[in-house]
């Protein structure tokens, strides 16, 4: 089975800082990681490959530094990687991103002379957080899509997908090709070994630019993006609340009841 996993390199969110003047993310010096849901998607893909045979390719659209994320994926079971990078793609919104990914994956299929049977995305990226890229990619390709999957297996040539819903789980049977977005799985992604890390570090990752694919650049980048970000800001934390301190308990309780009844809460 020929499987593609779309991987986004994201800033480690516990470290995110917003520039108070420009209202944009301060990326300099911020550690980057593989989007965690893409890590789960890769683990599902590698388990499928181990079960039925085949190959797992990872692909990321981003700057040169995204190769570090791709190498991490190579160290935990991906067989090959492609970086999709061009100035024309910078500033793309989700529609433009999914369009670029759809054209790039067709270019990879052409190059490798092998169509992808299955395409995995994470359910959402932890920075952009829209969860739109996977479903949009399925639309661009005209493939079936299954979202919020936590496990995927093949049985008698058909996909069997366990999908999370508000009520519990849906069990879906689908044909290939399909696009599947993955939530946190019940199993943990595997760790890299020293040997696999060393091999991944030596890997040469090809970069595909706009010139390498039949892409309409008017549909990419900031100009080709129908979404316009007007303003971003970090909400100011306002401290409400009153502390009643330094009083005996009965007096403090009486004061609290007074405050609550003044506020018409009691
Ligand atoms: C007008 C505008 C300008 C923007 N400019 C920038 C900018 O300059 N720089 C910037 O970093 N962001 C920019 N963004 C944010 C950008 O749109 C999103 O980060 C991006 O399109 C993906 O959306 P998301 O993060 O919500 O992904 P989601 O839809 O939440 O991601 C779901 C899944 O799709 C896949 N995926 C998503 N993005 C990629 C990718 N790049 N490569 C491979 N797989 C992917 C992953 O599997 C991921 O788990 C901009 C957004 C807008 C609206």
Highlighted features:
single chain; 266 residues; alpha/beta; Rossmann fold; nine-stranded mixed sheet; two-stranded antiparallel sheet; 6 helices; 29% helix; 23% strand; globular; binds flavin-adenine dinucleotide
Question: What top-tier CATH class fits best?
Answer: Alpha Beta
Total number of strands: 11
Point out poorly predicted stretches. Answer: none
Distance between the termini: 64 Å
- In what order do the strands lie side by side in the largest sheet? 9-8-7-10-6-1-4-5-11
CATH topology: Rossmann fold
Count of folded domains: 1
Q: Give the H and E element order.
A: EEEHEHEHEHEEEEHEH
For the sheet with most strands, the description reads: 9 strands, mixed
- So, the CATH homologous superfamily? HUPs
Which bin fits the share of residues in helices?
A: 25-40%
- Oligomer type: single chain
CATH architectural arrangement: 3-Layer(aba) Sandwich
- Strand residues, percent: 15-25%
Bound molecules: flavin-adenine dinucleotide
How would you state the average pLDDT, rounded? Answer: 93
Roughly how many Å is the radius of gyration?
23 Å
